[in-house]
Amino acid sequence: MIWKFQKCFISSWISTRKLEHDDLNYILSISQELKKSPKKQRKHFSDFKGAKNAKIALILQQPNVYVQTPAILGSKLLDVKLNTIIDQHWDEQENVQDVFNYLEKSFNVIFYQSGKRELKLPSNFSVPLICIQSSYYKLLKCLADFMAISNHFNGLKGVKLCWIGPPTALFNTYMLLGPKLGMDISFFCGFCKDSPLTPAVFKDAKEICATTNTAMKQCNSLEEAIKDANVVVTTCNIEPDLKLSLKAITNGCNKNWHVLTDLPRCTNEMDEEVFVHRNCLVWEAMDNMKWVFSAFSINGILEKNKNK
Predict the structure, then answer these.
(1) Do residues 190 and 164 make contact, with C-beta atoms less than 8 angstroms apart?
(2) Residue 94, domain member (yes or no)
(3) Can you tell me the distance from the alpha carbon of 251 to that of 223, in angstroms, rounded to the nearest whole number?
(4) Collapsing DSSP states into helix, strand and coil, what is residue 31?
(5) Same domain, residue pair 128 and 188
(6) In terms of residue numbers, what domain contains 89?
(7) What CATH number is given to the structural domain containing 145?
(8) Within a domain: residue 306?
(9) DSSP state, 124?
(10) What ranges make up the beta strands (E) of 123-208?
């Protein structure tokens, strides 16, 4: 198993913007290996390097089936204890670092969801802090999607991903992390007062593309955006012109195409025949979330024990 090498990249606090190419590949590699490994090998982790009786905290502002389910399943896979803390206003405190100072004495890893764009935290915590979702980023779901895409394209380098729909936290995460893994991205987010909607991180994403020799293209129509795309991803929207049809996909995309969407979905995202198509990776990606959660947990527990 990969964890026997005890390679850890998390020193104290990790967020979407902190992840680089090697970090992403490492987490995705652990996730893939966990998914392929026999159950007996995964359970053996609880006896490794003091991981037995490890405790994980998950801080949420409200119950969320799409976050809590992979956390529960991922913890169970490793036979570690998960404690979920729900506090609507936890990240609104003036000294939010006190929350982590209080919890770090009791937990090996702390995952959190925040309504803020990004919390300003010091780097001297004794346990890894992992932001899996915020108002601007959606790390857990993004990496689960990348894991599904990689499985069908034998990697991510050279894959053309297309986004259709308004800018979201998930797409922000795609834009910042996809180019670091060699992906090209095109998108059409619709219009606002006759001007194309532009994601908040577009400028930063373009700078990343310049250093990774990848492409980032803003388009003016669905047809332009999906042209030759390998993967089309969409989200809830109210624009009829953004709804994905099987005809549009088969006429415009690469012959080897796949689609994804973020849950919960709405009726305007895609035709039902697209959602139930064998090339739709939604359920595979959702299942991958538990493996990504487990991979972050492994890395965090190893880092915590390394510092003892």
Answers:
(1) no
(2) yes
(3) 9
(4) helix
(5) no
(6) 2-139+287-301
(7) 3.40.50.1370
(8) no
(9) -
(10) 129-133, 160-164, 184-188, 191-192, 195-196
Percentage of the chain lying above the pLDDT 70 cut: 88
Residue 60 resides in a domain: yes
Cβ atoms 123, 100 nearer than 8 A: no
Strand partners, 245: none
Sheet holding 160-164, edge to edge: 216-218, 184-188, 160-164, 231-234, 258-261
Are both 79 and 133 inside the same structural domain? Answer: yes
Chain CA centroid to CA 173, Å: 7
Integer Cα distance of 20 and 272 in angstroms: 36
| 169 in the same domain as 98 | no
Give tens-digit pLDDT for 193-221: 677 789 999 999 999 999 999 999 999 99
Q: What is the pTM of this model?
A: 0.92
Q: How many domains does the chain have?
A: 2
- Residue 24 sits in the same domain as residue 112: yes
Beta strands 109-113 and 55-60, pairing class: parallel
DSSP 65-93: HHHHHHHHHHHHHHT-EEEEEE-TTGGGS
Q: What is the DSSP string of 129-146?
A: EEEEE-SS--HHHHHHHH
pLDDT tens digits for range 42-91: 555 555 555 668 899 999 999 999 999 999 999 998 888 999 999 999 99
The SS3 of residue 120 is: coil
Across the chain, how many H-helices and E-strands are there? 11, 12
